[in-house]
User: What shape does this take?
Amino acid sequence: MVHIRSLTLLVAALVLLLAPSARAQEPDFATARREMVRQIEFTAAVFGPATGFPAIDRRVLDAFGKVPRHRFVPPPLVPFAYMNMPLPLGYEQNLTQPFLLVLMTQALQLKPGDRVFETGTDTGYQAAILAELGVQVFSVEIVEPLFDIAQQLLPALGYGNVALRLGDGYHGWAEMGPYDAMLIKESVDEIPGALWLQLKSGGRMVIPLGPPDGEQVLTLAIKHADGRSERIPLLPVRFAPFQGGRRI
Assistant: This one.
């Protein structure tokens, strides 16, 4: 859940300026999704030397090209749903920038049937992306109004392979583990021990590491089958911390 106050203010200003004209004609969401995917491919190529992922798998791009992001944002922001930027959801939460979600998804190297744990469900957009990739999703959200939206919206859109839980994702969801992959969308100084224990041997975790008010790095952590752990820095980022408070 990327937390960028200046961007939130900018989007709000754009809504006030452009929303009336945007309502004047019916938006072409399919075309908008294709354009979003094109922008993501371009951004991935630009940042490829830093992230190590210059090209995104077609099946990942196809999932982002299919899920209706406009259904997961507040109505006033629908005209901006397919811009490659975070969008405010209220409750001091943002829907993460699509490029970052693509990068995180790509880094996990998911296979159909994998069990994936996600923190920060928000309204369910990334959970829907994961579901499109044929994995079993176990997602935790701490903000009850956002959880309620996701709980209603995901089944309505046909995403039945998503299990939701209201609570603090910092502790994981042990009874549903272990997991092949974990997608963590809150920053923390160090990988929570509970999450690492719930990751399978050979599993992969993407997590923003760093203090809430300082430098953070989106990190790919790999739990090798031989017991080794590996951390690969992907990109400097700024995510909000776990809402249960800062913990080390």
